[in-house]
Amino acid sequence: MNKVPAPPENLAARVFRNAGVLFSSKGVAAITGLFYLALAGRHLGAAELGMLVLIHSYVLFFRDIASFKSWQVLIKYGAEYLGKSQRLPFSRLLKLTAILDIGGAVLGTSLALVLLPYALPQFGIPSSYLGWTSLYCLSSMVAIRSTPIGLLRLFNRFSILARISLVVPLVRMVGVIIAVRFDQPLVVFILIWFVADILSSLAYIWQGLADLARHKDIIRLDWFIGLKTQSHDRIWKFIWNAHLHTTLKLMNSHLLVILSGFLLGPASVAYVKVAQELSGILTKPAILLSDVIFPELSRLTAVYDKAGIRKLLAQTLSPLAVILLVVSAALYYWTELLLDLTVGPDFLVAADLLKLFMFSGVLGLAFFWLEPFLYAMGKPEIAFYNRFVSTVLQVVLMILLTKRFGLEGIGIASLAAMFFVCLTNFIFSMLLYHRMVGEETY
Question: DSSP alpha helices (H): ranges in 367-379?
Fold first, then answer.
């Protein structure tokens, strides 16, 4: 087997550098998001803010179901092709992921539009918002982001991704400030969310095309080269399992919002969304670290470098443990103050829910490397099975516990699901790691 040469620089340093680049932008995005969410909540009230969040989650729910998240297969197998200087297979893979993105965008939009008239009444949203919500659904038609994201991550262009990630929060912030200043109704906020989404998608597409031109020496820009994936039948298995797993993972936050709307009403949705955003101080770094460590793990597992994997994880997890303890303790004790300073005293009812979400975020951040490792080993199906069971567990517990504990039941269900998925992913990751000596695991 031809080996992919290991990068000469310290991998952990590169992980933290890339994570730092993304985290700086995500930090700005998080602060901006809290600002415009708090401003919108104070202006609209919990009920109307809940409607806005439900509409947004509904659109993203169907977008995630239909999206193939092709950036994962592009990184996993693209790293192999580029490491072996296989220009044509890489170009075929790139074409395949682009077609999957376009097909997913069309399918997601169609599903959302067809089911919308039946869904809105179930959320307690008046039919007068049908037209505006339909418009928002159309934003999924241009949400062709996965292939551009995969290219930019593969070519270590995290600074570009960081800048593009600011489009949505900055556009929403400016829009919300203007809407509040001129005392605008809910429909204007829906329009603001729509415009921000469109501009973000166009930015990803534009940058993806620019990077294709930038790497024309290693990428054949001939879109008539066919879709053959050579002997890599495992690519399709990887695509389907990665799609199912990531869909479940992304759907969890949307499902949480939508199900809480069904169980407790629109006002409770606002409390859940605020708790999600504030606990994002812990959950978002876990997502960022997963994204930046995946390409490095893919390169190491391609050559079965167990020592390199141990070193990378040790250098990554050691400083993270200290940061995690300090930040999580501070956030736990300042929960009420955090809510009061951001969204106001009316949202203090969500304090216990926020603490439970933070416990869940601590677990996710401590074990952020498990799912990227399973993907790097070519075993996304394991991550999918574990996530599927945890999602079922979460839904069942939500239905049972909200009847007795209200909002806190949602938090308990989320924490239990996170504990389950971390435990099972850890067990299977250790088994795969110890079986990794010189053999194909996919």
Answer: 370-376
